[in-house]
Design goal:
218 residues; alpha/beta; eight-stranded parallel β-barrel; 8 strands; 54% helix; binds SN-glycerol-3-phosphate
Length: 218
């Protein structure tokens, strides 16, 4: 499973990109609202920082507007993926963009039927939201599994991109069930990395290495 980062914060992307683990980036209007700067410049900079699919979401609501905005976004960089919400207008816009070889990430997907429609419209990625399904008392992980299984036999290159990830457990469950990608907020990357036994073990290694060096020197 590939790991993407879910943020528009350039500092966080730069830091996590330096770990060498990022295979792509997803953004959305809410994430962009948390940062300053012109969004086109932000997308361009993200494309410089990470060599992989970079999702940029349309804010237009009608299909013609989505198509026009999607083309403008896609023209920014070959790695841009146009993110479009799951709706009748979104499906229609996706079909148009896909027919012009512009990749689409269909977002705000919660169910397997929605995912099948997205895949059938030509979406390259479909993004089931795990955490937001949990928020309303359902199992986001069970819903994600339904999507993964429903698309198993689908005759296209569509990839399941697990989104709205809130815990490292979400990431692991997505990986175990065979989701293609998880897009992960920065703070979850740090939670994935940290373990007290790793820190304790490293401290002991450092102490022992220093003790040995002192003994050799003396
Ligand atoms: O990629 C979609 C994701 O950002 C939504 O996450 O935490 O706002 O539900 P969240």
């Amino acid at each position: 499973m590939k790991l993407f980062i879910d943020t528009a914060d350039l500092k966080e992307i730069e830091t996590l990109a330096a770990w060498g683990v990022l295979k792509g980036v997803t953004t959305n209007p809410s994430l962009l609202a948390q940062v300053d700067g012109d969004e086109m410049s932000i997308y361009r900079r993200i494309c410089e920082l990470v060599d992989g699919p970079i999702s940029a979401e349309v804010v237009a609501s009608g299909r013609a507007g989505m198509v026009e905005e999607g083309k403008r976004l896609a023209a920014l960089h070959p790695n841009i993926v146009v993110k479009i919400p799951t709706s009748a207008e979104g499906l229609a816009a996706t079909a148009v963009l896909a027919s012009q070889d512009i990749p689409v990430n269909m977002t705000l997907c919660f169910t397997a039927p929605q995912a099948l429609l997205a895949a059938s419209s030509g979406a390259r990625y479909v993004s089931p939201f795990v955490g937001r399904y949990d928020d309303i008392g359902n199992s986001g992980i069970d819903a994600l599994r339904e999507v993964v299984e429903a698309l198993l036999g689908f005759d296209s290159e569509v990839e399941v991109l697990a989104a709205s990830i809130r815990t490292p457990i979400h990431v692991i469950e997505a990986a175990k069930m065979g989701a293609d990608i998880a897009t992960i907020p920065p703070k979850i990357f740090y939670q994935m990395l940290e373990h007290p036994l790793t820190n304790i073990g490293l401290e002991k290694f450092n102490q022992d290495a220093a003790a040995r060096q002192a003994r050799q020197a003396g």
